[in-house]
Amino acid sequence: MSNAVASFPEFENRVVLITGGGSGIGAGLVEAFAANGAKTAFIDIDEQASLSLVSDLAAQGLDRPLFVKADLTDIDQLQSAIAEVGDRLGNISVLVNNAARDDRQDFDTLNQDDWDGSLAINLRPVFFAAQAVAPMMRQIGGGSIVNFSSIAYLLNLPDLPAYVAAKAGIIGLTKSLAGKLGPDGIRVNAILPGMVLTERQKSLWIKQKDVEAMIARQCLKFSLTPPDLTGPCLFLASDAARAITAQALIVDGGCL
């Protein structure tokens, strides 16, 4: 079964910005858009992983993506990073709000700081990134925003209360943004991944028994990896989806 990158020639020379692009799903998205000829930029706080990704893609013969280091929980930093991308590459036509942290949290001990910290990375930047790119998209006659949510909020998971609340919030926010920005030709959609085996997930949370249980639940009997999310994201961002907005696409191997 192939994980070949889907081909969308319309991304040639379009400016694409991905949050949380230094590793995991985000790194796969950076590579996919770069492979399609986009002027690709990404924001991440992990400088080491991000510079390594830039070097790896250059070694593959792809144009070096623009890495801008920023803490997305600091809205001033986020907005400054987006402005830098616009200044250096041109008006952004595609925004992918991918950044997230799925730290486990105990219901009985979760405090206000933990709650606020989770929403500060998992929900708040989604709005403010969209707010920052909208003027650029209006100048070029439209654009596409793809927000990464999760099926987690549909599974009654007990140990991710703040994360789950944020991911549910992204769906409502996506619909609100689609209504606001649609008249400007800006489409806003969401992707809900299932269990995706990133290196972080495997090192911190997911055990073999968890993998086996999820595969047993899925219609498709294989584990999802980051490349399985690139095709759906490229499609929603592309001209092929020009009539699609305010939608939530589940990519979970048929778990739900």
Briefly summarize what is shown.
The chain is α/β, with parallel strands linked by helices and 256 residues long. It has nine helices and seven strands, in the order βαβαβαβααβαβαααβ. α3 (75-89) runs parallel beside α5 (124-139) and α5 (124-139) packs parallel to α6 (161-181).
Q: Keywords, please?
A:
9 helices; alpha/beta; globular; 256 residues
Tell me about this structure.
The chain is of the alpha/beta class. 45% of the residues lie in helices and 15% in strands. The protein has a 7-stranded parallel sheet, with helices on both faces. α1 crosses α9, α3 (75-89) runs parallel beside α5 (124-139) and α4 packs parallel to α6. The model has no long low-confidence stretch (mean pLDDT 95).
Q: What layout of secondary structure does this protein have?
A:
Layout: E1 15-19, H1 24-35, E2 39-44, H2 47-59, E3 66-69, H3 75-89, E4 92-97, H4 112-122, H5 124-139, E5 143-148, H6 161-181, E6 186-193, H7 199-204, H8 208-217, H9 227-237, E7 248-251
Parallel strand pairs: 1-2, 1-4, 2-3, 4-5, 5-6, 6-7
Mean pLDDT: 95
Largest sheet: 7 strands, parallel
Secondary structural class: alpha/beta
E-strand count = 7
Contiguous low-pLDDT stretches (5 residues minimum) are none
The total of helices stands at 9
Helix-strand sequence: EHEHEHEHHEHEHHHE
